[in-house]
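Try this one yourself first.
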């Protein structure tokens, strides 16, 4: 009996889910293009490398990782867009790809980097078309649409061709489109990318609401830790296609919040050598930023040492930002030790390792 209940509460499973791409290697220039045609060479990119997952019905899961970690590839397999190379998965008890038609009625998806709406048509036309595709009866569709339009405040944009909408207006329409057929699980791949704080807040509120009121399971990838902190209790962190960590945000915070960031401003310029033994994040002129493990070090002793360096003008002690905690964990997945200044740079580094993939066949 309990096994049955357990089975019923599981919304998504993956077992050793793997996706390898075959990418054509092409040297630069025209001669490289000819060589690639005459003697094509390939290399294998293992984007997802044996991921095991279980997501409960009604759960909001953050699926995180650095650029190129394999998040979108995983979502594409779970939504049936890509076929796995090996391994298995179920979503709402169905197998993506194999049970694709039935699955389409049960899932919704938003890809922040790709529009699901018809570019040249007003969003309303796309909504009606989607309603027909999902067999939503006219009156039911209208009622659902009215509610979504009101919640996402998109009434005035419904009749404008999608290409003329701002990113924020379009994304709110995308979210509405993904929810029209009352999906049981919503896949969100960077739903707030490039949006201002007001629109982000609106979209997060909407996601919270459909989770609370309709019990929709949420599978979210985002580089915005605000999304993660406000929506999810659990985070799975992947890197190089493998799971690095599967934990609750509370546990992640607990294990990392022992790290404190101390920013001290002195009245006069200081000698940074005085901080030997500290993890120095920044030290210049009259200011130093230090990372201190509050459990391993007595705060009293730490502050005594800091005050011995010079006359203190101001000091602030803060917890390590969640954003840096997550990026430090990303780094652990690369086998390197976390280093805060490096990770901060890492978070803003736009280099996309997709470029390494060459021309893809
Ligand atoms: N169609 C494809 N052909 C070849 N390689 C691909 C293809 N799609 C993705 N990849 C490669 O697979 C790896 C994972 O890509 P994926 O898009 O899943 O990463 P991601 O975690 O979503 O990254 P980001 O945070 O940048 O969106 C990358 O190395 C990428 O270059
Ligand atoms: Mg992606």
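Now uncover the answer:
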């Amino acid at each position: 009996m309990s096994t049955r209940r357990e089975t019923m509460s599981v919304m998504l499973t993956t077992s050793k889910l793997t996706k390898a791409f075959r990418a054509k290697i092409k040297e630069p220039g025209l001669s490289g293009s000819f060589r690639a045609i005459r003697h094509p060479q390939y290399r294998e990119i293992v984007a997802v490398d044996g991921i095991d997952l279980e997501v409960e019905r009604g759960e909001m899961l953050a699926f995180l990782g650095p650029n190129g970690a394999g998040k979108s590839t995983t979502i594409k397999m779970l939504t049936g867009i890509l076929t796995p190379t090996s391994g298995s998965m179920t979503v709402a008890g169905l197998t993506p790809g194999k049970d694709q038609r039935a699955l389409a009625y049960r899932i919704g998806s938003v890809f922040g980097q790709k529009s699901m709406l018809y570019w040249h048509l007003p969003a309303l036309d796309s909504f009606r078309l989607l309603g027909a595709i999902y067999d939503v009866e006219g009156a039911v569709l209208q009622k659902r649409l009215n509610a979504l339009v009101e919640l996402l405040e998109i009434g005035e944009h419904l009749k404008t061709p999608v290409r003329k909408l701002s990113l924020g207006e379009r994304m709110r329409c995308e979210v509405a489109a993904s929810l029209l057929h009352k999906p049981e699980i919503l896949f969100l791949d960077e739903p707030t990318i490039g949006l201002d704080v007001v629109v982000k807040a609106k979209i997060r509120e909407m996601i919270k609401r459909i989770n609370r009121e309709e019990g929709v399971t949420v599978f979210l990838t985002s580089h915005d830790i605000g999304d993660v902190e406000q929506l999810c209790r659990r985070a799975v962190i992947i890197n190089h296609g493998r799971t690095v960590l599967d934990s609750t945000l509370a546990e992640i915070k607990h294990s990392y919040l022992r790290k404190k960031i101390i920013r001290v401003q002195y009245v006069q310029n200081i000698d940074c050598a005085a901080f030997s033994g500290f993890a120095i994040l920044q030290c210049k002129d009259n200011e130093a930023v230090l990372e201190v493990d509050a459990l391993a070090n007595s705060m009293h002793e730490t502050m005594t040492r800091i005050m011995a360096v010079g006359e203190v003008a101001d000091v602030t002690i803060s917890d390590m930002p969640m954003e840096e905690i997550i990026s430090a964990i990303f780094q652990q997945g690369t086998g390197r030790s976390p280093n805060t200044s490096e990770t901060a740079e890492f978070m803003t580094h736009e280099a996309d390792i997709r470029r390494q993939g060459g021309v893809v066949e």
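Discussion: Residues 89 and 141 are 31 Å apart (CA to CA). Residues 21, 23, 45, 47, 65, 67-73, 352-354, 357, 360 surround adenosine-5'-triphosphate (ligand 1) (CB under 6 Å).
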